[in-house]
Amino acid sequence: MVSRVIPVDAFDLVLFGATGDLARRKIWPGLFHRFLAGQFNNDSRILGVSRSELSREEFQDKVRAALEPIEESEHDCVERFLSQVDYISIDATGDRGWKPLAKAIRPDVIRAFYLSVAPSFFGPIAARLKQSGIATDDSRIVVEKPFGNDLKSARALNAELRTYFQEHQIYRIDHYLGKETVQNLMALRFANSLFEPLWNSSHIDHVQITVAESLSVDGRGEYYDQSGAMRDMVQNHLMQLLCLTAMEPPSQFTPNAVRNEKLKVIEALKEVPIDDIARGQYRAAGEQGSYREHAGNPNSITESFVAMKVDVANWRWAGTPFYLRTGKCLRERLSEIAVYFRNPPHMIFPGIDTPHGNVLVIRLQPDEGMTLHTTIKDPGPGGMRLTEASLDMTFADSLKDSEKPQDAYERLIMDVIRGDQTLFMRGDEVEAAWAWADPIIASWTDRPIKPQQYDVGSAGPEDALLLMHKDGRRWRTIGQ
Length: 480
Known about the structure:
Elements: E1 11-16, H1 21-36, E2 45-50, H2 56-66, H3 75-82, E3 85-89, H4 98-104, E4 110-115, H5 122-131, E5 140-143, H6 151-164, E6 170-172, H7 180-190, E7 204-212, H8 221-224, H9 228-246, H10 255-267, E8 277-282, H11 291-295, E9 305-310, E10 322-327, E11 334-341, E12 359-365, E13 369-377, E14 386-394, H12 395-398, H13 408-418, H14 427-446, E15 452-454, H15 462-469
Parallel strand pairs: 1-2, 1-4, 2-3, 4-5, 5-6, 7-10, 8-15
Antiparallel strand pairs: 7-11, 8-9, 9-10, 11-12, 12-13, 13-14
């Protein structure tokens, strides 16, 4: 199977925060890979913008460094790519640089503005773009998370952006939605007749959604201590995975049809009791410092781990819980959705009370793919013995003739140029997620209980295990 690269129309992409960490790690390499794939040609341009006073050549050197390591065969491509890259120094809250930017933008191509900057700059930059005439009615503006830190701030940020741009122009990016496996979840459900008839509480016992990280917060502890795992991961990333797993089939695969169904899931979430939540903080181990040391706050009660039981109150999912967990300094870097199907209602094989359960595991990282765990007869004579066998599809192995899976940012940036908002969050979706998360966070503020300590390299605190154990279930193993 050979994938098709569909070219996009000519564009001018203005990247604010062009010398920042995200641009260096993700955006510049992503754009270069799409250039290598032939998705955009020499008619398109990328204008880097930041406060720093740099010449075009100095800036291009920074971009070149962000693309390393470069294969020998790609050197000429790098220079051709850089020939389409320019730089303008702009004061985001002042007057400097806006007139040169207005002159640099071409009138006959798609205009997209990527704000890889702190949220406090979203409003001022949006205002300048509109008031200077740089942003037109068909321009697109991309904003990164965090999109607010509670419902009130998210509403204010939405209102500020909508003062200058219409909702169909605003692209709120969540890179998890750009992952190949996340999109394959929709294909699995809605393009195959095998699973969708079983995708309900009659056949599914429970769902586990795990986003585990092996790294600490060292280096960004001060920022993280103001957010914690709930704000940093659950309210956005895990919420999006929950929505795509639980949503009803949209009437058609269009941006608003898909996002309408995701919104319904968020609005159907029950309030989570405090007893159905586990919070943790990693402790020091050997040369690895503790969370509080990394946060620079010896009295911090911010969680670096959170697990919870979530109920979706609708006909499809009544009685089927969704267990969410995420944390830092865990045993392994792992992101997956595990769908546990119910056992057969009657076991016909003598001496076997409980068969190996059917579990569909959708892996987002590190090895994107899907695995279906099934029960089969153990080969050999001597009666009926059951064992587990796995039907595995690791994309790198199963789709060898296809194009290498794109990084999430590659896909999402090209979707912005296409004008496709399917994989981006709508404003009411963001606000609904905060409306659900705020009472949980407020309950921790009202009852300032310290998170339970857990070991670096473990699966999290004991409370998370008890959360599942009291329901007669167990978490899937993180690592070995």
